[in-house]
Amino acid sequence: MTMVTTRSDTADASRSPASPADRGSRDADTADVVGSGPHDAPRAGLRGARTWRPTPRLLWGLTAVLLLAALAVTATLGRAVWQQQRAADNGAAALAAGRQIAVNFVTMNASSFDADTKRVLDESTGAFQKEYASTLAQLKPVVTANKTVSTVERAEASLVSSDDDSAKVIVGVVAPTSNASTPAAEKKTYRLRLDLVKVGDAWKVSTLDFVS
């Protein structure tokens, strides 16, 4: 009996299950294809990325900018400190001058009248200087005849305000005073308000008033 192989039997043979070895080979090929796909693309890109590094020229430029900024801040702060110190020194000088002028104004001695009043004239200016000078001709005979002596026991000064060219000072003075009719000195208290102006490097009084 002769067996005839039909076409369908051949097709079935070709569609027979593959061996484990064949399946493993195909799976490996598939893995190679999948592994080379888009999922690995970003990873490859990260491995190839370059890290940015500043150039020496850029670093020098940034250093120069920071240095200039630091110098500007230091200069501004330094100027502010200098201005504050200058204002404090200016006020202190005005206060000391006002106190001394008040002491010289109250100090009077019949035996040294000219020297005493000259000090006041030298420390004054403007309207006060003219007014004070105009009274000396009438004041001298009175002081001399009465043998008046006025000294200063204590003087306390307070700065009201000041700027570069002007200042206001209040001075309280305790002045023991004697004369021919009152040999025992009596303590007199005066409170003076002085307006000062800067003349050159010196503070001078332009207005002097007695205040209560």
TrEMBL record:
The chain crosses the membrane at residues 58-77. It comes from the Bacteria. Keywords: Membrane, Transmembrane, Transmembrane helix. It is found in: Membrane. Residues 1-48 are annotated as: Disordered. Residues 7-22 have a biased composition (Low complexity). This is Mce-associated membrane protein. It comes from Terrabacter ginsenosidimutans. The lineage of its organism: Bacteria, Bacillati, Actinomycetota, Actinomycetes, Micrococcales.
